[in-house]
Design brief:
It is built from 7 helices and no strands. The chain has helices at 2-15, 19-43, 48-54, 61-69, 76-86, 92-110, 114-120. α2 packs antiparallel against α7 (114-120), α3 (48-54) runs antiparallel to α4 (61-69) and α4 (61-69) packs antiparallel against α5. The longest helix is centred in the first third of the chain and has 25 residues, at 19-43.
Length: 121
């Protein structure tokens, strides 16, 4: 293991000064990728019980409220579905508009720092 590390350091030294900024950009890119993997894994996961309720198409709103209440408040799917549940008495066009606004905010939150990754690439 130490020998492999020493070989990697020796290879970096051969590259000269240009290797240092490339190495820094690599570290930043890996950090962004790890952050996005953790965020997507933690904040976009739907519990199977919620999926079962929604896929019945004839669900009771109380069942949906119960399943949403069991989810973390930071979950993006919960935020989106909460908008629909809270405003279900409104006209469909109004609910759709509010849901689209919430989806846009979620998309912005999920896309944060991706411009840096695009620039590095």
């Amino acid at each position: 293991m130490i020998e492999t590390f020493n070989e990697a350091v020796a290879a970096l030294m051969v590259g000269g000064v240009m290797i240092y900024p490339l190495f820094a950009l690599t570290v930043i890119a890996v950090a962004i990728c790890l952050d996005k993997a953790l965020v997507y894994g933690a904040r976009t996961r739907l519990p199977s019980a919620l999926v079962d309720v929604v896929e019945t198409y004839g669900f009771e709103w109380e069942d949906l409220n119960r399943e949403l209440g069991a989810m973390s408040g930071r979950n993006y799917a919960r935020r989106f579905l909460d908008v629909i549940v809270q405003h279900r008495a409104q006209p469909a066009w109004w609910v759709e508009s509010r849901a689209a606004d919430e989806a846009s905010q979620i998309e912005q939150a999920l896309g944060r720092w991706l411009w840096v990754l695009e620039t590095i690439v």
